[in-house]
Amino acid sequence: MSPFKGQTGLKRILNASGYSLDGLRAAFTGEAAFRQLVLLNVILIPLTFFLDVSRVEQALLIAVCLLALIVELLNSAVEAAIDRISLELHPLSKNAKDMGSAAQFVALSMIALVWAVILI
């Protein structure tokens, strides 16, 4: 067991919630791409309530939007970890950052594809 895992029960859940909010705050204040995705979600998610789609379709439209936020959080975490290790240019660091960027590209493409399939 990790020495950093000292809490159990409700205290652990409260601590984890605080860490999650800290992560969201850090992403929002430090990552322009995350703020742009939040804005996109602020526009697209409420829009789903005005579209003539089934509940399942609405859930899919919302899910792909939220998935892009999740991918951006993970991409930002990878970039931060790589930068923490070293700012030196290295092919493996470049690969890690490029793969995170590619994951976000796929997530954004999925938003476009799912929205197009459902609405067209």
Description:
The chain is mainly α and 120 residues long. The chain has a single domain, classed as Helix Hairpins (Orthogonal Bundle), CATH 1.10.287.3610. The protein is 82% helix and 0% strand. The chain is built from four helices and no strands. It is globular and about 50 Å long. The termini are far apart. 8% of the residues are buried.
How many DSSP H or I helices?
A: 4
* Broad structural category: mainly alpha
N→C terminal distance? 52 Å
Counted beta strands: 0
Oligomer type: single chain
Provide the succession of SSEs.
Answer: HHHH
The radius of gyration is 18 Å
By CATH, the architecture is named Orthogonal Bundle
Q: What is the fold named in CATH at topology level?
A: Helix Hairpins
Percent range of helical residues: over 70%
- Tell me the fraction of residues in β-strands, as a range: under 5%
Low-confidence segments: none
Sum up the overall morphology in one term: globular
The total domain count is: 1
> The biggest beta sheet, please?
none
Mean pLDDT: 94
What top-tier CATH class fits best? Mainly Alpha
